């Protein structure tokens, strides 16, 4: 890689380039996506789908055991630069999604009204695009109808924006953006549509 200084190209050393990539990786938001309690097969698949959404800055193969408590995840999160937890729980009444910002919050809790698994969507498509290379780069985040001055909308908007790496328009390679995460707020029902 070359950098132009005073009209002459100056070569950036490989060491500096690797160090810069490591620094950028550490600064980017990382997440753990897991479930708590007995949730069933479909909710476990939903957790796996959410991990795909959060890639590449998530623990894709995070092992969750019955004896694990939340403190175990918090302890490991500091070492691995994890900034967000996405926790899915299920009760007799409903399925809930919690989004936690580490280390001091806030925590947002949502009731999941309905969801569709990725395997169901893929089965309806004639030519599904399942290229694993599309998960090597973070998605583009699109926020819709979050323009209200209410504090809770501002909080939800900033929380979801900070879960994903921000895109520098001047430096981004458009060929790397192959996925979109869209969050659309419905003010009448006070619901959020989350699409990937």
From TrEMBL:
Assigned GO CC terms: preribosome, large subunit precursor
Brix domain ranges (all copies): 29-196
PROSITE patterns: BRIX (PS50833)
GO molecular function, one term: rRNA binding
A Pfam match: Brix
UniProt record, GO biological process: ribosomal large subunit assembly; rRNA processing
InterPro entries (UniProt xref): Brix, PPAN-like
SMART domains given in the database record: Brix
Name of the protein: Brix domain-containing protein
Organism: Pinctada imbricata
Species lineage: Eukaryota, Metazoa, Spiralia, Lophotrochozoa, Mollusca
